[in-house]
Write a structure and sequence with these properties.
This protein is of the alpha+beta class. The protein folds into two domains: 29 residues; 134 residues, VSR Endonuclease (Endonuclease, Chain A). Helix content is 56%, strand content 16%. It has a four-stranded mixed beta sheet with strand order 1-2-3-4, sandwiched between helices. The chain is globular and about 45 Å long.
Length: 165
Amino acid sequence: MGLKYHEANIRYEFGFYDYLLTRLCYMKRKILPYNPALRELARKLRNNMTFSEVKLWNELKDGRMKEYDFDRQKPICNYIVDFYCKDLMLAIEIDGITHNDECAACKDQIRQKELESLGVCFLRFNALQVVHDITNVCRAIEGWICNYENKNEVSGSMLKKREQM
């Protein structure tokens, strides 16, 4: 009896360590600071998304974008980004009508530079572009991801995962 239990433990441990190795080899995640006071606001924003945000979220959620996990309305430092992928360190922003104001555009630029200094990359899309041309918006995101994977030698485990789909 003890041997079977021991064998089961070895198999379980191997599976666990195999999983850990896969995650570590896949990509190293950098943990970014955030302001806990923004959690409630982020939750409210998730519950009141714009039409363009909903439309893009439907393309990003559940690993639909090349199997990557995206979060919506993600607090990072003292800001909240529309969409964020930890594995890619990619923020996606949808600029609506409120971003046309010169003051808002200046604030966006400052915010983006600060987050880029932490290693976050940005993709920005106009809200009307997302609503009327979601196919090309998704192609642009997929193209960015392919370039990222080529530069950063994404592990075979991610590619195998895609082949199984």
